[in-house]
Amino acid sequence: MLYIKKLARPFMLLLAVMNLGFMIWVLFYPFKTAAFVGLSALNENAEIELRTMYGGLIGGLGIINLLGALKPKRTENAVWATAWSFLGVGIVRSCGCLFFNADVWQIIFAISEMIAAATCFIMLKSLSVVSVTELK
Length: 136
What we know:
Low-confidence stretches: none
Shape: globular
Oligomer: single chain
Helix content: over 70%
Number of helices: 6
Largest sheet: none
Number of strands: 0
Distance between the termini: 16 Å
Radius of gyration: 16 Å
Strand content: under 5%
């Protein structure tokens, strides 16, 4: 269990780098992101929506991840928020993959999101038996 506890902050840092990097990519190149995931409705409204939902929302989660990595007293909250965020996205994407003709990237994303959520929930189980002062 101690090993899992020590992984929480580095895992949050990894997710912070990935999520904030993705946010920057979407802010500067929203249509390249859209093409990568197979979206085709590309107009000004799509550009705003891509930057907002793909960039803003994922960037917000990246900030939560970064705070969890840098501030031990925030780690458990960051893992909790990340677990539920990835679970929600993973379930909805998985349903989409089951009911629609999903390409391989959508399936990979769904699996990755569910694995990230499961990893966070496992970490939460370990973190909740420790006080905040022990995480410092």
